[in-house]
Amino acid sequence: MSRSALAALAALVIGFGFGWLFARLVDGGERPARAVVTVEPSSEASVEAQAKAGAPARRPPASAQQRRPRPSSVARSAEPELESGSSELFGSLEAAWRAGRLGNDEALLAWIVRGHLEAHDPRAAFALLERQAARSAALYRETAAEFLAQGDRVRALASFLRALDLDPGDREALHALVRLAPDEALTRLPALAQADVFGRKAWADLANELARQGQTQEALGLANQILAADPNDDSALALLGKLDPQGAEALLRARLAAGEDDVRTTGQLANLLEREARGPEAARLIVDVLERSSATEADVGLLPWSLIGASVTDAHDWFLEAYPLDQVDPAGMQLWGLTGDAFLEAGDLEGALDAWERAVLVAPSDPSEWIASLREHAPERLVGLLERRVRAQADAESRGLLGDALWNAQRQREALEAWSSARRLDPEDGRWQERLDAVAAGRSPLE
Questions:
Q1: pLDDT tens across 146-158, in order?
Q2: What is the CATH number of domain 380-447?
Q3: pLDDT tens digit string along 66-88?
Q4: For the chain, which terminus, N or C, has the lower number of CB atoms within 10 Å?
Q5: CA distance 250 to 259
Q6: Structural domain boundaries in the chain
Q7: pTM greater than the 0.85 cutoff
């Protein structure tokens, strides 16, 4: 129950003077029978009805004559703090409601259930939902979430299952079911598939969860079902490659033979071969596609990244032609930089330095990431590299970066000249003026 609803309900109980009536409703002792008269706040007829019934005629207070909004419509953003007696209040309300004294309003049910949840008592909330044969999947789901927060997976599962019984398309409950009881989720799949409510990601999550729990055949069967519906589902294909690499390879090669989306399929097969430690074979597949005369720009943009992982040497050789140093290219900067990282991981420092230098030279904008790699592994090469970049690209960024390298090389006068030149070319970039000001103030410009 929201705090605003609680505040509204408390105001209703206390503000209208019904506290004494409420206390008598929930009291278990015997009371003399009395006529109960319903008072409609703004009705003249109700006052007359009281008189006819023998009850003293009373008009409701003026403040009650205008209809109040239902507490459920009050914005949750203005919720007050719960009072310490809230749980007792909800317990009393529930007792009176179960006895039939407060009607059977769905909003009141939601208030009481959420009151139990705010008091961190999901058992009371679940018991109430069961007693009232509640039809709200949302309330069961909220109760399940509180059980989970308390580490009670068994009762959380029972609550989620109740939510799914009421709303088979409740995706939040379905995803929770995948985590808590994949076997149960698997039994529900035919109906879910027919209703088209599960969602492809949840199917793939279920297949992976089954595999994690050692149910390999069930996971394989589900992965194949997903691929039958969507041959390009990467998650299902990756799972198939993990559980049955030979079957996955046969599937992908059959697609290539049939000419089905050969660029994407080539990338998927190359990734599979790479995971199987068959990098050179994967690289040949990729290069064959890249060197086809029919290869489009989109193909070139997709496969080079896979080529680096398959064989960094083959990637280096292919990039020499695809991204020459006299062509500025943002994709070339990223690919050369990642090639350098791959060389370094393979223990080839010289190959890494060469690739990082190429990334700096073809970069159309700030290549600071690769400059940082060079500064870490070969700072003595930076000045000559950036002087070469300035000759090719006489922009403010290149001159400013050269100034940084010159300063680190203890060539302060030349660094000041480079920063001054960068400031003149791009006065809106304040970095170069800040460096000059720092030097003038006797501080280090590169802190």
A1: 999 999 999 998 9
A2: 1.25.40
A3: 333 333 332 333 333 333 344 55
A4: C
A5: 14
A6: 380-447
A7: no
